[in-house]
Amino acid sequence: MRHTQAFTTFLTAVVNLNEARITRLEGHVAAIEDFLSRSDYGASIHSFSPQGSWAHKTIIRPVTSEDRFDADLVMFVEPRADWTPKQHVEDLYRVFRASGLYKDKVSRNTRCVMLEYAKDFDLDVVPVVRREPTDWEKLLGKETTFAVCNRLTDEEEATDPEAYTAWVGELDDATSGMLRQSTRLLKYLRDIKGTFSVKSILLTTLVCQRAEERLAIDSWNDPWADLPTAFRTILSDLDDWLQARPIMPVVENPKVPGETFTRHWDQEKYENFRNCIHRYREWVDDAYNEADEQKSLKKWRDVFGDEFAPGAVTESATVAKSAGFADDRSLVLAAAQHGIDFLKRFMSRATHVVPVPWRDAPRRIPVTVTATLHHEEGGAEAGRLLNGQVIGRGWHIRFSAAVGMGGVPKGWRVRWRVTNTGAEAAAKKQLRGDLAKWNKGSTTHWEHTAYVGVHWVEAFVVDTKGWCIGRSEPFFVVIEDRQASAA
């Protein structure tokens, strides 16, 4: 089922960058433009223009409070004959460093300077050299050219950010506004899952090229009829294109031949991206084609996480009753009496648990999780916590994962899945059941005991190719209605 209204609400409330952040961004950008226009920057400034996801209108909200969003501002400048390319970036850095307001915010990247703002976003200011043709060159058909400046190689690199932005806008208009919305959803999927890496400009290009191909096809049905249909169309077309190319292709800027967007990829990263898109395409097809409303919502939540249609899938809040217990406290008493085997049988009733996105490796290695109790996160250890032990509210727990008899090999990642049950967690919309968003690789993970009920933590070890090479047994935490001080 499509659940069109749920998609619209999800996009507005969860995925889109909210108006307060946009207003703050625009205010800082206006201040930067005014500052640079009055500065002693050594090249003549022609104009400013937004670039990247902000300009393309595909920018999304950070998925956790610890994540940041970034925006790009192009500063078009006139060529200066006595400067080499790197001087455009170095002099811009000098101007910001000389400012009491910006000196502690600024740093240099390869082609820009970055301003890091205290709250949650970074602004890249990119000097772009703009060369207008002479009157004679115009008669010969030559157009204005643009180049970014690589300060490491001291070379110019052709670009045309405004032409690219216009291309995205034209395709979005042709898809009735569905292209940009679908791109935001796909970027959210990337960030919420954390299973593949792809630069936003590369992902946007791949998606727009598939839309361009689709628009050239005569079809009796409308692939852009609504957001779930458009998203499914984009993902399906992208998967088909990737599956036909087992070797990493070169993806160029469609408006600047020779400018490649795959320079940060390699074959290994490409294969992982290709496999993940194929897997998520199957999940999306399954959710879209599911005729049962509740089952379909559950499958869409497997794709996008528990912030999609919150509260629409209600059976998980009544796990205790479905297991034959009057309430969560009765379930806690039974868990204390019957131990781990009882708790493992109970797990299957938690229908809100999201499947992990990785393939199981042919050969698995053991993963062990241990836990310690603390009165505050990062504080001194107050004791060991055993699997299935009953404790009160208010404890901080430090979980640690070990592979075999040692640590996690370099390049491998540990991902944590935390599942809560019970009426209290459900009322606070904290049933979870998906991969932790704020911990994408650490061998340790912190939790806080807050809700009466049975909860568990699992650790998954993923190698550099996206294979799950090991997973721990569930570590059960049973919380009763008493405070930590009484433990």
From TrEMBL:
A Pfam family hit: AGS_C
Keywords attached to this entry: Antiviral defense
One GO biological process term: defense response to virus
Superkingdom of the source species: Bacteria
Alphabetized GO MF terms: nucleotidyltransferase activity
Domain Adenylyl/Guanylyl and SMODS C-terminal sensor span(s) in chain numbering: 363-480
The keyword Ribosomal protein is annotated on this UniProt entry: no
Coiled coil: none
Name of the protein in its database record: Nucleotidyltransferase
Organism: Roseomonas genomospecies 6
Upper lineage: Bacteria, Pseudomonadati, Pseudomonadota, Alphaproteobacteria, Acetobacterales
